[in-house]
Amino acid sequence: MATMITSWNPEKKHSDVERWICIYPAYINSKKTLAEGRKLPKSSCVENPTHQEIRDVLLAVGLRVGVENKLYSRERSKEILYRGRIRVQIKNDDGTPVKSEFGTRESVMKYIGESIPKLKTRQNRPADQQPQSTQASNKSKGKKGRR
């Protein structure tokens, strides 16, 4: 996206980047609570999605996508892994959906939640995330002894 994004204006067309919907990875992260920014039920979400995975899924289905280097305001971690905002065009200039199956932002997010686990990069991932859960349990055991 080489164009400069300006402030929102009601006269802008649906094809202008400013009118595209925004999706942060936290919206579909099953590790987040509703208060932390998750927008869908956990059954429709994915564990720790990245903006690259979201972009790949949306490009594969044929939607126009833009990636911005933004951080979600409710995200506590400032790490590069959690950065990224995805902009997606879901409506044509006349207001009709670009793809009939994606009429709302919720339908786009549900599709992302269903498709990310099918990515080749996700096939080996559960083994990678095992050590993280054991480290958290070790910390809680250590604190129990201190009073």
From TrEMBL:
Q: Name one GO biological process term.
A: SRP-dependent cotranslational protein targeting to membrane, signal sequence recognition
**What GO terms fall under cellular component here?**
nucleolus; signal recognition particle, endoplasmic reticulum targeting
InterPro entries on file: Signal_recog_particle_SRP19 (IPR002778), SRP19-like_sf (IPR036521)
One term of GO molecular function: 7S RNA binding
Which residue intervals are annotated with compositional bias (Polar residues) in the record?
Answer: 124-139
Subcellular compartments: Cytoplasm; Nucleus, Nucleolus
Region: Disordered; residue ranges are 114-147
Q: Which Pfam families does the record match to this protein? A: SRP19 (PF01922)
Q: Which UniProt keywords apply?
A: Cytoplasm, Nucleus, Ribonucleoprotein, RNA-binding, Signal recognition particle
Q: What does it do?
A: Component of the signal recognition particle (SRP) complex, a ribonucleoprotein complex that mediates the cotranslational targeting of secretory and membrane proteins to the endoplasmic reticulum (ER). Binds directly to 7SL RNA. Mediates binding of SRP54 to the SRP complex.
Q: What family is this protein classified in?
A: Belongs to the SRP19 family.
Protein name as annotated: Signal recognition particle 19 kDa protein
Organism listed in the record: Papilio xuthus
